[in-house]
């Protein structure tokens, strides 16, 4: 059992300290641990070239063609059974390097797409190294720590929701999360015994959850509004009806006001189609496949006229200065 800690913040600052505190307890619970700080790693943004999925669909493994430090972090994640991520909030949301990694790692390792590709290979009689890497399909257990300096919580309000983007495509189980804001006044997390205890509990819970069926994993942290991601964000429909949506999980519920308190009731059907569930992942997989069936014939139909329609955009400087 291996638990990986990743800090996307400065070395020996808040994120590093909190992740390492969690790793001490993960090791005490029997885990092998590894720590990576990404501050000096080069992880560029996705170029949307599609090479990773194209290689997969042509019988290879998932591989990004961009040459930087992404692969090192990818390998560490694939080798881990449990993961603890801390990342700083800079402008209401999480630091961009984290999003760069998410954009390159998560769609390429989408569990539903990988399962469908593996199924094709098995049906074609492929074996051994001809199959997709077995690490793509193992269960992983994850915890998030959003780190913010502001004492006003709404200045870090997108921290935990953005961190949750990491796990759902790969069908990871979130064990717990910590909204570690107000670090500016704390000066250093070691001065806050309660916060350090939260980190200890998170590390221990990650290690103790590894290997459990997902539905037997107990949640560690504040309950929040959403029963799946436990975040507090809600989207209001344009019609302003009582039906609201969790923008993190993509599930809908009925908004009610009881004793001056907001409650949202989410049905089991909705909970079972949340983004990180296999049902939710397949829902999106079929959505994409349906888009392809519409898009490709449309492009083929207009292949002779489309270049002319796009000419003024391709030669924008020439046309705009006429």
UniProtKB/TrEMBL annotation:
Chain segments annotated as transmembrane: none
Entry superkingdom: Bacteria
Protein keywords: Flavoprotein, FMN
Pfam families reported for this sequence: FMN_red
Domain NADPH-dependent FMN reductase-like: 1-118
UniProt KW Transmembrane helix keyword: no
InterPro entries: Flavoprotein-like_sf, FMN_Rdtase-like_dom, ISF_SsuE-like
Keyword Acetylation: no
One MF term in the entry's GO annotations: oxidoreductase activity
PANTHER family (UniProt xref): IRON-SULFUR FLAVOPROTEIN, NAD(P)H-DEPENDENT FMN-CONTAINING OXIDOREDUCTASE YWQN-RELATED
Protein name: Flavodoxin family protein
């Amino acid at each position: 059992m291996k638990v990986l800690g990743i800090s996307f913040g400065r070395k020996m600052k808040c994120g590093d300290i909190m992740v390492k505190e969690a790793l001490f307890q993960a090791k005490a619970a029997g885990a092998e641990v590894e720590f990576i700080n990404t501050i000096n790693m080069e992880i560029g943004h996705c170029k949307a070239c599609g090479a990773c999925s194209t290689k997969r669909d042509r019988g290879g493994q998932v591989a990004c063609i961009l040459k930087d430090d992404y692969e090192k972090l990818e390998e560490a994640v694939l080798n881990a059974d449990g993961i603890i991520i801390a990342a700083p909030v800079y402008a209401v949301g999480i630091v961009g390097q984290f999003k760069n990694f998410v954009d390159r790692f998560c769609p390429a390792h989408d569990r539903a797409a990988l399962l469908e590709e593996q199924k094709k290979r098995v049906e074609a009689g492929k074996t051994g190294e001809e199959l997709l890497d077995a690490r793509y399909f193992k269960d992983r257990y994850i915890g998030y720590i959003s780190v913010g300096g502001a004492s006003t919580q709404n200045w870090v309000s997108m921290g935990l929701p953005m961190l949750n983007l990491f796990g759902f495509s790969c069908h990871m189980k979130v064990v717990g999360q910590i909204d570690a804001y107000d670090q500016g006044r704390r000066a250093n997390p070691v001065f806050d015994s309660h916060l350090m205890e939260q980190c200890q509990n998170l590390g221990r819970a990650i290690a103790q959850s590894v290997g459990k069926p997902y539905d037997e994993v107990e949640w560690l942290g504040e309950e929040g509004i959403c029963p799946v991601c436990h975040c507090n964000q809600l989207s209001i429909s344009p019609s302003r009806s009582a039906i609201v949506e969790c923008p993190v999980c993509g599930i809908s519920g009925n908004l009610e006001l009881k004793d001056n308190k907001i409650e949202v009731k989410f049905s089991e059907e909705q909970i079972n189609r949340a983004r990180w569930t296999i049902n939710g992942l397949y829902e999106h997989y079929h959505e994409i496949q349906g888009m392809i069936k519409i898009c490709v014939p449309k492009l083929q139909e207009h292949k002779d006229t489309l270049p002319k329609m796009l000419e003024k955009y391709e030669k924008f400087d020439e046309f705009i200065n006429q």
